[in-house]
Amino acid sequence: MKSITLPWATPTLSKQPSFTRQETERFSWLTRLSDIRKPRKALFLNLAKQLKWPSEVFTILDLAFKSGLTRHYIWDLQGIPANLLPAFGFAMGLFKRGVTSHTKDPFWSPLKTPAGECQIDIVSSGEALNSVGVSRALGYTQDQINSLADLCTVIDENILDLYASVFKDNGQIIVIEPTEKNKSWSQVSRILSHWLDLGSPKNWLIVGGGITSDIAMFAASLIGANVTILPTTLLSMIDASTGGKTGINYFPFGKNQIGTFYYPQKIVVAPKFLETLPRREILSGGAEGLKHAILGLNEPLAAELALSLKEDNRTALANLLGTLIDTKVSIVAQDSFETLNIRDALNMGHTLAHALEAFSQEKKVRNPIRHGEAVALGLVFDLLISEKNGLLSQKKFSTFMDFIKESGVLLSVPDLGKALGQKNRGTLATVINEFLPYLFNDKKNTLHSGNFANILWIVPTDQKDSFPFFKKVTITLGQAQSIWQHLVFNILTPK
Question: What residue segments make up the domains of the chain, in order of their start?
Fold first, then answer.
């Protein structure tokens, strides 16, 4: 068994170049008091009751989105009545995973996470996936799992179906249907309702892929639960479960717009789960792995991963888990709460990806695009930006582009068209104009969300001295349209 330690500190502003006065604007909430006090939806009133929060939290969040605020606005709370400040504190901690205020402590929020560390255990790929093996890895005996009143298991319904003998329903299980649609306040309220019915257990075991951990960790963060994660997909093993990011979608404003930074006490990675994953899920997770390799300009890792994905070699993939997780952890440990500009590297491929996912959901297609599939397209897009701006040598550009193509992570033109609700290559080539609103709402935007020039793209570069090798750039709308058309006509396969 291999163990990796992920430490995290508390957020700090003193070293934060992206929150300088030149790059921020203030938004005064004093003029919006009458709107904050308007009646709220029944769902939000119920959530406020479940969490014992002021109900104004949810109105403030809604107004922040409708006002076009980005993460880099300073929330000016001067003149706000004292009885509303707690509501603002919660809203500040949730809006795009945290914003600053004019107060002495710019990251003041009741949701602020104290420093700590998480232990990541990668068990042997030969470890039997049964109740004994799982309980041993988790640090519990099976008797404890069956009898511990202060433990609830939040689990992906597909995993419960596949491994019923491992995760027997002992009355302490909350089942989740892992869909993007369920990354919502209503699903969080459902989880909390079950949790309250179970007697509000303090310890949570979260079992599932990236969507399950996003939703369940978000719910856990709101009530301060102690969490152990057992990731069951390649994507969640190497990426989603190891970064402390939680979140839900907030349409029509996009993916992961509301969330927190909240770290589990332990993560147990069991490679055996890879054996029953559909190939589509393997390729989806593989795209995130290729991102890690590109961030390190690590050609040998990218080559090995691409070959493993191409051949669908689950044993080879299991052997790469430690290296891929190490890469992610080494970035997260330097910038636990995304306040020092280092962790921005992990958003490579995600500016385009999140817009594609949100647009695919909006179109209500039968098989919406998976997160990793969208990231694969985003990686190609960012590589093209880097190459066209002279930020990456032609050799490295060609090498990493070839690895992405050979791995099989890219959708074909027909499959992408179906996922985005487009009937032919011609409409697919211009569809970027339709998902522009989701690009505008990207969390990395610095100022006005309606200006394309403020959209930040995280691209690879070999013109940087230290890992991770990335740069933030902006491009024009015309350049983005041209790159997207090149991707559709020249990169993706026609079948």
Answer: 2-101, 116-277, 326-491
CATH superfamily of 326-491: Dehydroquinate synthase-like - alpha domain (1.20.1090.10)
Question: How would you label 2-40 residue by residue, b for 16+ Cβ within 10 Å and e otherwise?
Answer: eebebebbebeeeebebbeeeebeebebeebeeebeeeb
Domain 116-277 class?
alpha beta
Using the structure block, give the residue that is written with the tokens 């009898």.
147
Query: 116-277 and 326-491: same fold?
Result: no
pTM over 0.85: yes
For residue 5, list its beta bridge partners. Answer: 119
Beta-bridge partner residues of 257:
none
- Please give the single-letter amino acid code of residue 309: L
For every one of its 495 residues, what pLDDT tens digit does the chain have, with 9 covering 90 and above? 788 999 988 765 433 434 333 345 788 999 899 899 887 789 999 999 999 999 999 999 999 999 988 887 889 898 999 999 999 999 999 999 988 787 656 556 778 777 899 999 998 876 666 655 566 556 655 555 555 557 889 999 999 998 888 876 555 899 999 999 999 999 999 999 999 999 999 999 999 999 999 999 999 999 999 999 999 999 999 999 999 999 999 988 889 999 999 999 999 999 999 999 999 999 999 999 999 999 999 999 999 999 999 999 999 999 999 999 999 999 999 999 888 889 999 999 999 999 999 999 999 999 999 999 999 999 999 999 999 999 999 999 999 999 999 999 999 999 999 999 999 999 999 999 999 989 988 877 655 556 787 788 999 999 999 999 999 999 999 999 999 999 999 999 998
Please tell me the distance from the alpha carbon of residue 487 to that of residue 172, in angstroms, as a whole number: 48
Is the separation of the CB atoms in 492 and 416 below 8 Å?
Answer: yes
Q: Are 216 and 165 in contact (CB under 8 A)?
A: no
Q: Which among 289, 291, 301, 333 has a CA at the least distance from the CA of 470?
A: 291
Residue 193 exposure: Cα atoms within 13 Å on the Cβ side? 10
Q: What is the helix, strand, coil percentage profile of the chain, to 5? A: 50, 15, 35
Instruction: Give buried/exposed letters for 381-397 (b at 16+ CB in 10 A, else e).
Output: bbbbbbbbeebbeeebb
Burial of 207 (0-12, 13-18, 19+ CB in 10 A): buried
CA-based nearest residue to 26, from 111, 106, 113, 108: 106
